[in-house]
Amino acid sequence: AVLPERLQRREAERQQGVERQRQKKEAQVVKEEQSEFFLAAFAREREAVESLLATGALEEAAARLQALQKLLTDSVRFLAPYEVRQGQEAVARLQGDLAARRQQLQPKKKFAFRSLKRLRRCRVRLRGNPNTLRVRDCRGCTLLCGPVSTSVLVDGCSDCLLALACQQLRTHRTRGCRFYVQVTSRAVIEACSEVSFAPYSWSYPGIEGDFESSGLDRDSNNWNLVDDFDWLATDKPSPNWSVIPEQERITCWD
């Protein structure tokens, strides 16, 4: 009587193992199918945006580009890290192309710090709706900026406080900075350390009109979704960035 019971138990364990393997294989197949569907859909949408940019249909191109970013954001959970990075780079390139075409067809004001040789421990308030923004080599500065229509690049900065609203935020070679952001895509950091993020909270009279003219969606804010190009592990968070605790966030900027 003992032998059949033992055999039955072993058979049940074997069947459970077979079922686990089957489920694992099915999950892998689903993941591969999802990845293939994403790549095909992403390629179609990218080509559509490129065609619209070439013909000058900028508003439609901007809307399709936002949809392309949403497709990428919604698909991150089943994509390989290199697929996420390639997608982000493609979106960044298209956003740059869109900004360039807007300048060609409808020139807008642009702000950059390149004309200043030294920008140390300054406080800059930039109201209005710049097209693009580049911040380089700042030390101990505070920058409060109105909504930027396309992209913001922060490069080589340290110990700064920045309030930024934009489609895309790219940060290079930066450390010890705090970012208060409204960003419609996922922020990207590279060669950065000790940077932290919180939702955009700066305000001034007329900011709602600037948001409207910028084309940014106030209801879309991925302030806490950050892609670290130096940290590709998916099972552990990047040690290079963090979220600013609520009790430590700035609420009054005057």
UniProtKB/TrEMBL annotation:
Chaperone keyword on record: yes
Q: Which residues form the C-CAP/cofactor C-like domain?
A: 89-231
User: Which segments carry the region annotation Disordered?
Assistant: 1-25
One GO MF term attached to the UniProt entry = tubulin binding
Gene Ontology terms describing biological process: post-chaperonin tubulin folding pathway; tubulin complex assembly
Q: Which keywords label this protein?
A: Chaperone
The record's PROSITE patterns line, in alphabetical order, gives:
C_CAP_COFACTOR_C
Write one Pfam family the protein is assigned to. Answer: TBCC
InterPro entries recorded: C-CAP_CF_C-like (IPR017901), CAP/MinC_C (IPR016098), CARP_motif (IPR006599), TBCC (IPR027684), TBCC_N (IPR031925), Tubulin-bd_cofactor_C_dom (IPR012945)
Source superkingdom:
Eukaryota
Give Gene Ontology CC terms. Answer: cytoplasm
Subunit structure comment from the entry? Supercomplex made of cofactors A to E. Cofactors A and D function by capturing and stabilizing tubulin in a quasi-native conformation. Cofactor E binds to the cofactor D-tubulin complex; interaction with cofactor C then causes the release of tubulin polypeptides that are committed to the native state.
- Write out the similarity annotation: Belongs to the TBCC family.
Q: What is this protein called?
A: TBCC protein
Q: Which organism is it from?
A: Grallaria varia
